[in-house]
From TrEMBL:
It is a multi-pass membrane protein. One of its GO terms (molecular function) is sugar transmembrane transporter activity. The chain crosses the membrane at residues 49-70, 90-110, 117-136, 148-168, 175-194, 200-221, 285-308, 314-336, 348-369, 381-405, 417-437, 449-467. This is Major facilitator superfamily protein isoform 1.
């Protein structure tokens, strides 16, 4: 999974020293794919891998439950606690502010106390947050609880996919990693659906369920073998890897490969934040950060957080619309995971962004008709069509593909710093959009969607002119083409 470092001519000797084990390791792994390694992998007992993935994606589900909480509860919380629109906007958006903090600190936490430890920390914050929301009698406990669950979300967003990628055998890694995104969407969708029949306090308690499963599951699953190897805990590393692959599986080759890879990583220069803006890295950083801007500033979190109110304001059943929205989101996200390696990244992004532009125009038209008392009978149908087309189109590409491309374009020696920057930009965009959504709607309901349509139109231009197609290329080929 390593990128070949693009080193300037003055560092040729260091380049060869680092590149040789990387290339040799890649060659050995390619040879193994046709030989004994595949045999060992296929004969191994993967039950512990599946169990560990299930436990980890409970964190993904908890992430989704946090994100989906504010939409079905807006009216009831505002009524019960006498919150103004401004106060509820703070409550809805402070989640993403907490997630920004969690995303920034997640890497150091996961490196210091391990992947399991980081998931435990995230779960503790989520539990404390949900309890604060459940017992809240005023705005401050409500906001503190929401901030705490947001922090847990931010940590989950980093550590869950990293943990899954580090424990999975290579022939299962892609399929298992996609479970993270599917479970996030499932958590959002279930919150939307059951939020139509539960009170806001009862819905907060349901957020404790995945947390309880995760905490219990962490007792039985092993730590990431790669993290243990990185920390020099050799015996624990071998024990964890053996447990994941099955007691009768020969792990000698895989263990040696992991050790060689980690030794190579230790020899690569550690990049600082300012190093990201060097000429050799600027294009990959522009692509990674730009895709996060494209993903968030097109309005997804505003629509996701307040979808039930959008349906209500258009004169359509909030419960029916929210349920359809939730189911569609999960189904399309699952289909996206199946076709991404067949159709390519760039076509999915372009189709997704085009669909979102059309969806925003339809929704904007619906609210324009409502504001001007024109064809009022058509408003609910146009709104439902626009919103469902929006989430379907977004889930088809813009939801997951930016994260995939980001994981492919950064050289290994800047991946941590560049990934943190891109993740921070993503969560900042999520916070800004969710915070400003209600204010924009108060300013102009149809104007808000026209603004989002314009941003997504610019996204199409960005994808066409800047984003490369990475399907079917090795990581070294991708980095070479971007650096060249």
């Amino acid at each position: 999974m390593a990128f070949r470092e693009d080193v300037e001519k003055g560092n040729n000797s260091a380049q060869e020293e680092i590149r040789e084990p990387l290339v040799q390791g890649a060659k050995n792994r390619a040879d193994e794919e046709d030989g004994s390694d595949v045999q060992n992998t296929s004969q191994g007992n993967h039950s512990m891998v599946y169990l560990s993935t299930f436990v980890a994606v409970c964190g993904s589900y908890a992430f989704g439950a946090c994100a989906g909480y504010s939409s079905p509860t807006q009216d009831s919380i505002r009524e019960d606690l006498s919150l103004s629109l401004s106060e509820y906007s703070v409550f809805g958006s402070i989640l993403t502010f907490g997630a920004m903090i969690g995303a920034i600190t997640s890497g150091p936490i996961a490196d210091f106390i391990g992947r399991k430890g980081a998931m435990g920390v995230a779960t503790a914050f989520c539990v404390a947050g949900w309890l604060a929301i459940f017992f809240a009698e005023g705005v401050w406990p409500l906001d503190i609880g929401r901030l705490a669950t947001g922090y847990g979300m931010g940590v989950y967003s980093y550590v869950v996919p990293v943990f899954i990628a580090e424990i999975a055998p290579k022939n299962l890694r892609g399929a298992l990693t996609t479970a993270n995104q599917i479970m996030i969407c499932t958590g959002v969708s279930v919150s939307f659906i059951i939020g139509t029949v539960l009170s806001w306090r009862a819905l907060a308690l349901t957020g404790l369920v995945p947390c309880a499963i995760l905490v219990g599951g962490l007792i039985f699953i092993p730590e990431s073998p790669r993290w243990l190897a990185k920390c020099g805990r050799q015996k624990e590393f071998e024990t964890a890897l053996q447990k994941l692959r099955g007691k009768d599986t020969d792990i000698t080759d895989e263990a040696a490969e992991i050790q060689d890879y980690i030794e190579t990583l230790e020899r690569l220069p550690k990049a600082k934040l300012l190093d990201l803006f060097q000429r050799r890295y600027i294009r990959s950083v522009t692509i990674g950060v730009g895709l996060m801007v494209v993903q968030q500033f097109g309005g997804i979190n505003g629509i996701c957080f307040y979808v039930s109110n959008i349906f209500e304001s258009a004169g359509f059943s909030a419960s029916v619309g929210t349920i359809i929205y939730a189911i569609l989101q999960v189904v399309v996200t699952a289909l996206n995971a199946v076709v991404i390696d067949k159709l390519g990244r760039k076509p999915l992004l372009l189709v997704s962004a085009t669909g979102v532009v059309i969806a925003c125009l339809l929704t904007g038209l619906a609210f324009y008709l409502k504001v001007h008392d024109l064809a009022l009978n058509a408003v609910p149908a146009l709104t439902v069509t626009g919103i469902l087309l929006y989430i379907g189109s977004f889930s088809a590409g813009l939801g997951a593909v930016p994260w995939v491309v980001m994981s492919e374009i950064f050289p290994i020696n800047i991946k941590g710093a560049a990934g943190s920057l891109a993740t921070l930009v993503n969560w900042f965009g999520a916070w800004l959009v969710s915070y400003t959504f209600n204010y924009l709607i108060s300013w102009s309901s149809y104007g808000t969607y026209l603004l989002y349509a314009a941003i997504n139109a610019l996204a199409i231009v960005f994808v066409i002119t800047v984003v490369p197609e990475t399907k079917g290329k090795t990581l070294e080929q991708i980095q070479s083409s971007i650096g060249g």
